[in-house]
Design brief:
Blueprint (H helix, E strand, L loop, with lengths): L1 H38 L3 E5 L16 E5 L16 E3 L5 E5 L4 E5 L10 E4 L8 E6 L2 E7 L4 E7 L4 E9 L15 H6 L9
Antiparallel strand pairs: 1-2, 3-4, 4-5, 5-6, 7-8, 8-9, 9-10
Length: about 200
């Protein structure tokens, strides 16, 4: 019986070592593949294409960005105080405007210029956005400063419909215990005003 138990423990130990070896091998292979695929990407300066309608500061003179060889870069729209971007299933781009409580939809098509569509408004500092499909319906989850909400996305009107709060009452500047600081500010600032890691 003791011998059988020892053999079982040895077998388990060998299996664990084998699993660790496989994990290291797979990780090394993936890292090597990643480096081969992306590590040698050559970046080259590319002039930013700016339609006439958008040629105001800082695009009132030519601008260049480093992009992978063969890529192009173009201004497709300009929204003041924009913060976060999320591509949409229909090829557009959602742009959050936290300071104004809005999310805009803009066309991702490089040719031509189209007016932005107001997708949602009256939000509290909207920032992070994530799409998911549940039961055949496309939802967008939006991180607001005091809650996480989800909307049904309408690809025809490019708007966010039927807001549902899925995580309520997150602490933000309206929370008395934070003394007027948002969660992010409270985590990075101390009483003496010196930031801490």
């Amino acid at each position: 019986m003791a011998k059988s138990l020892f053999q079982q423990q040895t077998t388990d130990h060998d299996m664990n070592r084998l699993a660790v070896f496989h994990l290291i091998f797979v990780a090394t292979f993936l890292l090597g593949t990643f480096e081969q695929s992306f590590g040698q990407t050559k970046l080259v300066p590319e002039k930013v294409t700016v339609p006439t309608e958008f040629r105001s500061s800082p695009f009132d003179h030519d601008r260049y960005l480093q992009v992978p060889s063969g890529f192009q870069i173009r201004v497709v729209n300009r929204i003041s105080a924009a913060r976060f971007l999320r591509s949409t299933p229909d090829g557009g781009i959602l742009v959050s405007q936290p300071s104004r409580g809005k999310i805009w939809w803009i066309s991702g098509v490089p040719e031509g210029v189209s007016l932005p569509v107001l997708a949602a408004s009256e939000l509290r500092l909207p920032h992070g956005m994530v799409f998911t499909v549940i039961g055949g319906k496309t939802y967008l989850y939006v991180g607001e400063s005091n809650e996480i909400s989800r909307f049904q996305y309408d690809p025809n009107s490019h708007t966010l419909l039927h807001k549902e709060v899925v995580v309520p009452n997150l602490p933000d500047s309206s929370s008395a215990e934070l003394r007027g600081s948002s969660t992010a500010e409270a985590g990075s600032r101390t009483e003496d005003g010196v930031g801490r890691a």
